[in-house]
Write a structure and sequence with these properties.
The complex is a heterodimer. Chain A folds into two domains: 88 residues; 235 residues, 2-Layer Sandwich (BirA Bifunctional Protein, domain 2), CATH 3.30.930.10. Helix content of chain A is 41%, strand content 20%. Chain A is built from twelve helices and eleven strands. In chain A, the strands form two sheets. In chain A, strands 1, 5, 6, 7, 8, 9, 10 and 11 form an eight-stranded mixed beta sheet that branches. Chain A starts with a helix and ends in a 16-residue tail after the last helix. The model of chain A has no long low-confidence stretch (mean pLDDT 91). By secondary structure, chain B is of the alpha+beta class. Chain B has six domains: 69 residues, Phenylalanyl-tRNA Synthetase, Chain B, domain 1 (2-Layer Sandwich), CATH 3.30.56.10; 105 residues, OB fold (Dihydrolipoamide Acetyltransferase, E2P) (Beta Barrel), CATH 2.40.50; 194 residues, Phenylalanyl-tRNA Synthetase, Chain B, domain 3; 69 residues, Phenylalanyl-tRNA Synthetase, Chain B, domain 1 (2-Layer Sandwich); 197 residues, Bira Bifunctional Protein, Domain 2 (BirA Bifunctional Protein, domain 2, 2-Layer Sandwich); 88 residues, 2-Layer Sandwich (Alpha-Beta Plaits). Helices cover 25% and strands 26% of the residues of chain B. The mean pLDDT of chain B is 92. Classes of the chains: A alpha+beta, B alpha+beta. Chains A and B meet through helix 5, strand 1, helix 7, strand 3 and strand 5 of A and helix 8, helix 11, helix 13, helix 14 and strand 30 of B.
Chain lengths: 358, 801
Amino acid sequence: MDNADNLRGDLICAIAAAESTNALEAVRVSALGKKGTITKLMKTLGSMDPDERKLEGQEINALKAEVCIAIDERKVALEGAELDARLMAEQVDISLPVRPRSKGCVHPISQVIEEMTVIFCEMGFTVAEGPDIEEDWYNFTALNIPPEHPARQEHDTFYLPGKKNGDRKVLRTHTSPVQIHTMQEKEPPIRIIVPGRTYRCDYDATHSPMFHQVEGLVIDENTHMGHLKGCLIEFCRAMFQVDDLPVRFRPSYFPFTEPSAEVDIGCTRADGEFRIGHGDDWLEILGCGMVNPKVLENCGIDSTKYQGFAFGMGVERIAMLKYGIPDLRTFFESDLRWLKHYGFSALDVPGMVGGVNR
Amino acid sequence: MKITLSWLKEHLETEASLNEITDKLTMLGLEVENVLERSKGLESFVVGHVLEADKHLDADKLQVCLVDNGVEKVEVVCGAPNARKGMKCVYAASGSYVPGMGIALKKAKIRGVLSNGMLLSEREMGLSDEHEGIVELSDDAVVGASAVDFMGLSDPVIEIAITPNRGDCLGVRGIARDLAAFGLGILKPLDTTPLEGTFNSPLKIHMDLDDEHVDACLQFVGRYIRGVKNVESPKWLKNRLLAVGLRPISALVDITNLMTIEHCRPLHVFDADKLHGAIHVRMAKQGEKIIGIDGREYDLDPEITVIADEKFVGSIAGVMGGIVSGCTEETVNVFVEAALFNPIRTSATGRKLNLQSDARFRFERGVDSQFLEPGMHIATGLILDVCGGEASEIISAGVAPDRSLSISFRPSRVKELAGVHVKEDEMKRILEVLGFGVFDIGKEWGVSVPTWRNDIVGEACLVEEIIRVFGYNKIPTTPMQRSEVIPHAAWNSDQRRRADVRRSLAASGLVEAVTVSFMADDQARLFGGPADVLKLVNPISADLDTMRPSILPNLITAAGRNAARGLADCSLFEIGPQFASDDVDGQEMVAAGIRSGRSGRRNWAESHRNVDVFDAKADALAALGAAGVPTDSLQTFSEAPDWYHPGRSGTLNLGKKTTLATFGEIHPGVLAKMDVKGPVAGFEVYLENLPKQKRHKGTTRSLVQLSQFHSVNRDLAFVVDEGVSAGDLMRAAKSADKALINDVSVFDLFQGGNLGEGRKSIALNITLQPTEKTLTDAEINTVCNKIVAVVEKTAGGVLRS
């Protein structure tokens, strides 16, 4: 048995001395391979008598098992060390910037229109739309603005030549013509908002030849000015995220509503900083009123049975106030720096679950 | 509309403060835009009297003035050329703050002479830019009294935005009446006692209007006044006009202006000695001209109403008088006109001649049809007071229309329409103070409309009047009634789709822009436009004169602008309308986008390349995918519009006819004409061409089939003619076994080498997905052979060895 003991000692030493997985493999082959030392020992068993074989066999198997375990353990240790070494060699400068991914964003006008839509949707409004190029009748006459009406001159209308022998067309000066289309096509009750592009022939610091409006129209049998106030106060507070935002209705004039009102929200300019909310000042943000019976009649709706309200507001103005964007004209200049600064993430979807705003 | 507080108080008996008045005006619908308290900060300045003015010994342009300031006599050094002995001026004492200079005065030696205070110019007072000399006050100024009081500046000016319906509030009295209705005071009675004439007017009035134009002037009232002196207006009158922004001219002109502002009653005064015979109200003749009091010549035509004598046109009715028959300092005999001109015609004339005036502004909004004679009496009184003279009897032609409009009014409508209960007594009070007559009180009232309220036409108008005065703030806020507990979607499927496309494009790295719907005509021509009917009649500028036929040019121009700022790599998109005609159908909703310059920023990890057609194609496909289009079933055709690179562009179609999108590199020639540096790749998705999404009857989806068998990948490279498209090759390969072949992609392209001229190699990776059992090698080979056979047959492809 000295043989086995010697062998054990030699192999354990060799295993411990193996410096790499390759060297270890060589030791394994030298012991357990076809011509390995332990394999050879196993082969000697055949020539032994049964008692001796039993005794020797047990010892050799124990030797084999011991060597196998030693090899496995050594292997794990060596592999770990080699992996460590490789990983050390693979080290990179993790301060390097990542592969660039271009970031897109949504324009504030789109975002604000969606915010408004979410709020009005909660109050049962659906979205209606209409053409940018309108007939004079829809843009003016049907809305109780006859051709010589002074209000028409305040609209700074863009004209298109129109067909020969026909009336010239206009670029709609407000989204209100969609009220007319809707009332012509649909029986009351009606509850719509109309976001869209509008055009006026005016360009200076506070006017752009194109801007956006959101129009609203409610027609049924008993909606009155109290509801108009309720609807718009809730809207203003939800939109500007000020729960107790002061909202003021004061008389005004629009040919298509009667009574008409302009709506102001509270604000302050204290300490040179403009803020929406409680304060000493008011800021006009939208116009509204009860739909003029003449407009209902122009659309074939019985004004003795139906009534309701309409409102309209400038999207850019509200975006400017809400997000502190200083200049109207910059909305349309497509300056990447501006767009990325004032734009919204694609995932910033306004909703009632996640909120109108983040 | 500007008024002053004291002027208002001449018609309104009130104790209310300026603040109360302006607040109430706004809440009545007479929106106060500005309150100008001109005397603020100037109260300490007094009337000074220059007793001596001697040359400064050490300075050519300075004088040393001895000024009496009412308390003492002080020496003031003054550089104004008009400073002189005996004049009355505005004196600021040492220590007072001079707003126009932004400093407080100190006693200082000026070239050796101690100056006590300062004599002020208008600019130094902060009143105007006038700085030619110091303010000169008239001799009647009391030395030591408040200078701003004497100058009439202590009267605050209130500027009000009058809505187009409230013509009656284009006069001080109309505004006072509204405030009285609000309960802020009492409207003082107006003295319109007829001022009898002493002789018959030597001039007669003739209404020479045919049937078609008879509405041009319904009534004309006139009066001859002889022996007047057209002096300078008294101070109170000048101050009043100056306060509201009108330049005093002469008493006669100033009085007409006063009547316009105070009573909304425009008048005209002719120099009677310059008239040739009787007065005629008629339409102008073609070719007639008039030089207005503004000195400009106007060409008249038969749709313009004029007032003429036997020979010449004297004035453009309701708009402006002529200079020839106008009053001057020498005028002695005058003929005063008060007429009722047609609002629509006056407005048309004004627009045609591009001529705005205070008179036109009032006539086109409608004036009080019953205030011609009363107005004439008030004006006559003023003229006789200021200019002396003797007035004739009033003569008149035409008749004021009988506008005794009466509206039947159900008080119940106030609650129904406005949602607030107003006591009937209060309704009646409001209406009556506003000048309405209320009779037949019952369930339905009869309400007569005052002749100055041309805007009141129906019951809703009366509700508005009552509620406006009662107070919008008293209307209880009422929540909207819900017609459904949980609201339906606000968007229809097209609107939803647009929002999805927007957010998907933004998520894939494109920045949303909103550009205007118009563009320059020459650029529109590069993009399939423009139709003549889409050229604006009145563009804001030449580079915005056409409705855009495509969104791309606006985005490309924007890329150019960004490049000029150093941002060469630009990824933009826009979702909006483009226009092919002025019909409803000619407007189309499009999602368009561009990428310019290099793809991504230069970086250490990846090689860098120019944007190309495949960026655009990927964006188009992403947009279509987000819109719910099954992009696998799309076909590509290489027939994109002219503004794309002819060899690097295409369309994505559903079938031959329906183009859903175009994409490609923008034609370098187009870019050059737009002066934008390329490369630029763009796409246009025609959202209205997409297959309609049906709102599903149910929400159930088809059952998923998940194969439990391994999929197998095989690579097959084919050599084909150069003209064979990869798309055709892929389609051919796929068609070999539609059940088994799950996916085909191109993983390599090769041209040249030993392939030979006009040949290329396309390497496909094919995914086989068995559903019933694992594929054996033999079965895989069978499919591959089938693919090779089909490709060979349909695309002439040979398996590359």
